[in-house]
Amino acid sequence: MALKLANIQCELREVRLSNKPEHMLKVSPKGTVPILIFEDEVIDESIDIINWVLDNSNIFKDNINSKQIKLTENIITTFDNKFKHHLDRYKYSVRYENADEEFHRSECLKILKDIENKICDGCWFFGDKLNKVDISILPFIRQYRIANPDWFDSQQGILRVQKLLGNFLDSKLLNDVMYKYEEWKISDEPIYFPIIE
């Protein structure tokens, strides 16, 4: 999403994590996605890719104040560490020995309840303008909902979170970046993302 917003184009290679290409594992042995590869650098964490984009293109210039910037960083840290940990063990509990699905779902919900009253009126977290916090945490919340949409939608304590996620799911930005690409093969012609409009 950050690359799309900044109109920074790159070659895209769609991979299946059940069939990781040798080249991918060579440049990033941990074998997770996304990976942004430069001639002299590899960035293999989503938040680091977002930060790289923001260092090179200030797409959210003057959207939020210093207090909101600090809150953004605290929320993103919580999601990258605690929320993601519990989300994986909730959504993929069979992959983790002795994972208690309901406990991990509950821990994620606590985090969502904690941010509930920090969400401003408007389409996005801090109002009417999209910001770093939105593109950093909403994909995680989307995954959390996917695990059990009816349960998520029935939670009365996170109405602002649900509305925020709804705006995200309906957004042109998400629809533009969620295009389904064919799995990359070494013989393929290059495909570029995003399409510059």
Provide structural commentary.
The chain starts with a helix and ends with a strand. The strands form 2 sheets. The chain has a two-stranded antiparallel ribbon with strand order 1-4. A two-stranded antiparallel sheet has the order 2-3. 52% of the residues lie in helices and 5% in strands. The protein is built from 9 helices and 4 strands; from the N terminus they run αβαββαααααααβ. It folds into 2 domains: 2-59 and 179-193, Glutaredoxin, CATH 3.40.30; 66-175, Up-down Bundle (Glutathione S-transferase Yfyf (Class Pi), Chain A, domain 2), CATH 1.20.1050.10. A hairpin with a 4-residue loop joins strand 2 (36-37) and strand 3 (42-43). The mean pLDDT is 94. It is mainly alpha-helical and 197 residues long.
